[in-house]
Amino acid sequence: MTSSALPGLSRLNAAAAPTAAALLHEVCSSTAWGAAVAARRPYEGVEDLFAASDAAMAALTPADLREAMAGHPPIGRPTPGDATSAREQGGVAQDERAELLDLGLAYQERHGHVFLICATGATGAQIRAALEARIGNDEDTEREIVRTELGKINRIRLGRLAESAQEDPS
Q1: Rounded to 5 degrees, what are φ and ψ at 134?
Q2: How many CB atoms lie within 10 A of CB 15?
Q3: Sequence-distant (≥ 6) Cβ neighbours of residue 70 within 8 angstroms
Q4: Which of 16, 23, 48, 95 lies in the 20 to 30 Å Cα band around 57?
């Protein structure tokens, strides 16, 4: 599929640098990731955009990953009024949120950052199992899991951005 068939991708390709940066920041709050993805414009299609995202993700430093994670709310507590975080955590039942938030805060205490998982389509039980399995990981292992999960999230968000006919990528 070409960018002309995807209004959001066409908009990203044609956007001035500050607008492109703002659009990409809504996908991922890592400045380095956004700059790397913006620099490879124009994109012929969404697969090219995904490839650029994957390459940028692979190049992120630990500090860049921390910056990216800082843009994500804790599991169990989507950001009020944020359609993206509410949609992504939509598989978590209301009665599961407190438990996941408590587990997520314990994870955050241990690792120094929010628990990051591609929650789109995941149930509360699946997220709880991942939290329990990952809380004991060492820093290097967890950093690479986070990189993988963030890459999945970015691909979902980029797909929505590429298809969106609106200015707001969420």
Answers
A1: -95, -15
A2: 16
A3: 29, 113, 114
A4: 16
